[in-house]
Amino acid sequence: MAEPSPLMIQSLEKGLAVLESFRAHASLTLQEIARENGITMGSAQRVAYTLEQGGYLYKDPRTKRYSVTVKAVGLGYSYLYRQPLFQHAHAVLHQVNQECGEIVNLGVPDDQDNMVFVMRVAPARHIPEYMPVGTRIPCVASASGRALWALLPPAELDRKLRSVARIKHTPRSTTDIATLRAFIDEARRDQYAYADEEFYAADLNVAAVVHDDKGMPMGALNISVPKPRWSLERARGELGPLVIRAARAISKHS
């Protein structure tokens, strides 16, 4: 194991880790903060107090449970607002939404094999699944993630498929490595990927990769449609070409 860098500020690292731990919890006690982060109660107390004083955590005076405040949303503001690529993508997502009348998303990968949705345009005629900015979906269970994984070297793809958690989120979730590899090979050939009720029931989605100004893959544009109003065959036939064209339009202006 590599020695920790002398440049690392461990207290800052610990504070950021505590904030991250609230991603999966609405609120946490000091004991839960300590357990989630593998730190002592004293350390958890100091970090929680510091974050509370900074306005990032709120402590309920009755239950003594901590929760994240709206100030934490600002931590991602610069990333979302200052990216020129996202500003252009916003217009393209709206155009695609107008063309197909369905939900259009833009997602980027994190370092834990998830796709993080950073932009979403939904039609007005129905209420979609609640997916606020920052929602994470495993790459292996999403069209966006599969589209990106289709660009990986074979050895790296094989490593990811063997190491990633393959969970049955729905009865249709694919957990077999050979089948997943076949889906990704298909995405490489067709230049778009699809996922049929892999993470949400009755949700069908297709996605194509968006590249940055250096030609490197940076995310994926995704169109999500409901079943049974859309069949897999119809979605692939109508939305596959659309999502490729839209992803290229974003990439061209990156």
TrEMBL record:
Start and end residues of each IclR-ED domain: 71-254
Listed GO MF terms: DNA binding; DNA-binding transcription factor activity
Residue ranges occupied by any HTH iclR-type domain in the UniProt entry: 9-70
Keyword Metal-binding part of the UniProt annotation: no
Coiled-coil segments on the chain, per record: none
Family annotation (Pfam families): HTH_IclR, IclR_C
Domain of life: Bacteria
UniProt cross-references to InterPro entries, sorted A to Z: GAF-like_dom_sf, HTH_MetabolicPath_Reg, Tscrpt_reg_IclR_C, Tscrpt_reg_IclR_N, WH-like_DNA-bd_sf, WH_DNA-bd_sf
Keywords, comma-separated and alphabetical: DNA-binding, Transcription, Transcription regulation
Example of a GO biological process term: negative regulation of DNA-templated transcription
Name of the protein this chain belongs to: Transcriptional repressor IclR
Organism for this UniProt entry: Achromobacter veterisilvae
Upper classification of the organism: Bacteria, Pseudomonadati, Pseudomonadota, Betaproteobacteria, Burkholderiales
Record gene name: iclR_8
